[in-house]
Structure formats: C-alpha cells, structure tokens
Amino acid sequence: MKRRKFVSLGTLSLGMIPFLGFSATESTAENKPKWIIDLIKLNDSSITDLLKYQILDKALPAYGGLTDGEDIPNPHSTNGLISRGIIGYTNPESAFYKSEDLKAKMILAAKYLRKIQHADGTIDLLATNFHSTPDTGFIVERVTASCQLLKQANISETDALFAELKSFLLAAGDALSVGGIHTPNHRWVVTAALAKINNLWPNPKYVKRAEQWLAEHIDLDPDGQYTQKSTGGYSAIINNALIATAAGLNKPELLDYVRKNLQMNFFFVHPNNEVVTDASNRQDKGGVRTFEIYYMAYRYMAILDKNPQFAAMCRMIEKDNFKNVNGDLDHFLEDKFLWAELPAEKRFTTQYAKYFDYSKLARIRRDNWDATLLINNPNFLTFYKNNAVLRGMRINASFFGKGQFQSPEIKKEGDVWILSSKLEGVYYQPFSADKIAPDGDWEKMPRSTRPESEIQQLETIIKIKEVSGGIEVDFDMKGTDRVPVSLELIFRGDGKFTGVQQSEKEPNSYLFSQKEGSYTIGKDTIQFGPGKLEHKGLHLRGGLPADTGSPSVYLTGFTPFKHTITLK
C-alpha cells in the first residue's frame, strides 16, 4: 500500500476564518447528508480490507502494525487502519460503530506507530525517505483529523486511543518545527500539518515555523500551476494544504492560489474526464489520473465562493468516481461546512484552443475530442476521442543517432500550431601538428576543438491545425536526403483496428499503408489516415524503444519526408 493511498492531504482545520467553525465536542451524528452516509458505508469495506494486513502475533517485533503489499510493516499502512477505523468507530451508520474489537486493534496500531516513531519525532517512508519530516507531515495530517473526530464524538471509551495519538502528534510537532524538506510541495505539507497540530494544542513554535516556510511565497506560475506541474497528484495535495493553512493560521489570501489552480484545471480535462498529466515533472507524468483527488478543494471553494463551475466539477467527479472520494471522508466529517449543498452548477467550457506558456503545452478541446501539443517531449501530441485514446505520436529519423523529434517551442501562425527542430551531423578533421597530444590520448584532442566538415542537416517542421471533427498533422522533414523515417502512433488499451497490417516481426505493432485506418474502444473510434509505408524499419537507431505494452501503428518513409495525416 503506497503512501499516497493514505495521505491525500485534504484537511479543513479548526481556525479563525469565520466560515470554518465547529465545536470540537459537537456531535456529527445528526443531519448527515446522504452522500456522507454513503461514504461511511463504503469506508467499512476499507476497514475490513485493512484488518487483513495487521500483525497480531505478539512474538513479532511489528506486533500491532500493518504491512503493505510487499509484507513490509510500515507507518502509512498502520495509520490507514487508525484513520479509516476511527471513522467507523465514531459513526452510527457504520457496521463498526463502537466496535470493541476494532478499538482494541486501533490501539495496537497506535502503539506500533508510536514505537516506530524516531526519537526526533519523524517517521520513515520505507520506499525511499528515512527520518523524514515531510512524510511525518503527511501522516500528521491524518492523525490530527482522527483526533478531531474522536473529540467530536466525545466517547470516553476512546481515551486510551486518543492518548496514544496525542503522544505521536506532540513528538511529530517537534520534528516539524525544525526538520527539512525535499520538494516544493513538502513546504506546504509541513505548514498545513503544523497548523493542524496547533489547532489541537497551540504552540508558538508551530506558527513560527509555518510562517518561515510561507515567507518563501507560494510557487504558483501565471498559468495557475505549481512548480511540479503535477496535475495528477501533488497539485491537489497543495490545494488542500493551502486550504488547511488558510483556516488554521487565518490566512484567507492563500485561497487565491487554490482558486487559480482549480480554474486552470478546466482546461486540463480530457473528454473522458481524465486529467491531462503530460506536463508533470513528477511520477504522474503521462499517466492515467482522474479528478477525485481535487474533490474536496472544489467542493470547499464551490460552497465558499458560490461558484457554479466549481460545482459542475464536483458533479462530474461524483458521477465518475464517487467511491474514490472516500479517501477524504475523515475531513468531510471533520468539518460540517462541507455538508452544505453545492450551488447550482454551470458547465465549464469544453470549447477552446489555448497555449500554456509555463506548462509548455497547448490544449485544443472540442466537446468529445481533444488534442495536447507538447514542447520538449518526444510524445509531442496526444488525441482523445472520448475513451479512444492516441496517447502519443512520435517521429524519428536515423540521423546520427539523435533523430528522435522533439520541439523546443510551439508557435502559432493564424490557426496553425507549429513545432520544429533543426539537427546537424558533423564530421571532424585532423588536429594540426602543433596540437596533437604526444601520447595519442583521444581525450586530449576533443572534437569540440577540431575543424568541422561534411556537415549534414535535418530540419523538421510539424504543422497542426483543426479540421472538422479533429486535427490535421502535416510533416515536412528535409535537409539530408534518403534518411529513413518512422512515424509512430501509440494507442491505449486493447481496442480493434481496421485498415492496418500486423507486423510479422514485432507483437502489438501494425504497419499502415492504406488510405484510412481506425481504432475502436467500446463505442468510441479514432479514424486516422492516410498511411505511408516505404520501408519496414520501425525502430531506427537513436530512437526511443518500442512501447510494447501499447498497440502502435507505424508509417515509414525517407527524407525529404512530406506527409499529412488526419485524426478524427
């Protein structure tokens, strides 16, 4: 069980901001909206699953802890049982309400969590980080929510569990007050965690350290994206962290950053409601992600601002991935502000062509299809037709081992988007006699200082424009003649092709020479063509290896290579 399965940093803390208030001992048993009750019942299955991973052999060192999928006991899985379990234990709608067995097992888990906490207050992320302040922050965010739920429930039988969690948090607070970070988002994770502990047990050192991180300013670019551009992961974490910090430290100005990021996301929605992740520089880059991780921030801001487009995003998430919203249930229970009805929704735009300078991509969306154009990326184009997905288009020429195309910029001329690159292949002349290394050492006679000759050139210009129902991609590769070229269309899934021929040499590879081809997933079809097949060299020297897990269609030729392909 990976960290992010348990540590989606969503939190709405107690604080001084007027719209975020509840009594710490207030009962949450009354007037729960149906969607909250539904999530509580879904949470029961999470508890059942987690209990399977708990170590109950007293002879083992990890007694009380939980293992991950690789049978490694760890703090994140262990806290997962505590977090999910407290929801069940404190809510009458749960089958685990006031379960003595569950309570006993949560106390064992809390004791183990305390046992593996280092003397400096930190915990380890065993996959990579040790004595980790930021990973401590991720866990603190959940443990503080658990403590708030115990206080709200006001059940005296949980005093022993609360005491264990309090000891963990106070030790963690010491670590968070002095410890360092790795990545930009860690600053806001730590700051939010400090704000949450401070809500429970106020301490000036927590606020002082949080202010020290906040003094570095929030790293939001003019596009509305954070430094890591992690639309499928860390951007949502940052939004929730900033909401927590705004509430806990009475800094409503931080919500402006959240608004801008949530507004930007309207332009990062594929027709099948997945998130555009291609610009990310974290683990989610190019991955399949959906928007449930943003649900709490969208709901919070929709209610606060009475924003109909934020409400529309909430409804989209509920329709597509309601059960996955369960990950933030402790926070929904923690603050009744989120129980309010959403405002009337107004659908965000699905008709646009827009360039994002800081994210280095262009987005074209026309209702049921979209295209993404990418800078400095061999997969320079994606095309979605609802659930039929061309997840990458690549072109390579066997030009001195460096012919894999990627463009350093996107230009727009009228209604045409232009990607381009220029390459040179150089030969080198002998050194002059006075510069020759006496020992003949090649490294002492670098190519950078040799005279150049027989310089070969390859220029690639790709023009992309909209046509009815899709896009047209025009290729023009010229310079040195007779250079082999391979154009690759990488699809996603196990759909059905027409108009292409299975390669005899490679699995999942198809040759395309016909006038038209198609790829169908379910009810959705991408049509593409015409084809071109002048040779069968699919993977040319210097190009990226085949993506064997995805079905790929190949067009081939030689320079000068001129071809136009349409995607609809």
Q: Report the β-strand fraction as a percent range.
A: 15-25%
Low-confidence stretches: 1-29
Largest sheet at a glance?
9 strands, mixed
CATH topology value of the largest domain: Glycosyltransferase
Spatially, the strands of the biggest sheet line up as 5-6-7-8-9-14-20-17-16
Report the count of strand segments.
21
Q: What CATH architecture label of the largest domain applies?
A: Alpha/alpha barrel
How many distinct folded domains? 2
Q: How far apart are the first and last residues' alpha carbons, in Å?
A: 40 Å
Helix content: 25-40%
Mean pLDDT across the residues is 93
Quick structural summary:
The chain has 568 residues and is α+β, with helices and mostly antiparallel strands. It has helices at residues 3-6, 34-51, 75-90, 100-115, 133-153, 159-176, 184-200, 204-214, 234-248, 255-264, 295-305, 308-321, 329-334, and strands at residues 66-67, 73-74, 123-125, 129-132, 351-356, 361-366, 369-374, 381-385, 388-397, 410-413, 416-428, 452-467, 470-479, 484-491, 496-498, 501-502, 509-511, 517-521, 524-529, 552-558, 561-567. Helices cover 31% and strands 23% of the residues.
Main features:
single chain; 568 residues; alpha+beta; Glycosyltransferase; Beta-galactosidase, Chain A, domain 5; 2 domains; nine-stranded mixed β-sheet; eight-stranded antiparallel β-sheet
Structure commentary:
Helix 5 (133-153) packs antiparallel against helix 6 and helix 6 packs across helix 7 (184-200). The radius of gyration is 28 Å and the shape is globular. The protein has helices spanning 3-6, 34-51, 75-90, 100-115, 133-153, 159-176, 184-200, 204-214, 234-248, 255-264, 295-305, 308-321, 329-334; strands at residues 66-67, 73-74, 123-125, 129-132, 351-356, 361-366, 369-374, 381-385, 388-397, 410-413, 416-428, 452-467, 470-479, 484-491, 496-498, 501-502, 509-511, 517-521, 524-529, 552-558, 561-567. The chain is built from 13 helices and 21 strands. A hairpin with a 2-residue loop joins strand 8 and strand 9. The strands form 4 sheets. A 9-stranded mixed sheet has the order 5-6-7-8-9-14-20-17-16, with no helix packed on it. An 8-stranded antiparallel sheet has the order 10-11-12-13-21-19-18-15, with no helix packed on it. Strands 1-2 form a two-stranded antiparallel sheet. The protein has 2 domains: 3-230 and 238-249, Glycosyltransferase (Alpha/alpha barrel), CATH 1.50.10; 351-567, Beta-galactosidase, Chain A, domain 5. The model is unreliable at 1-29 (pLDDT under 50). The chain is of the alpha+beta class.
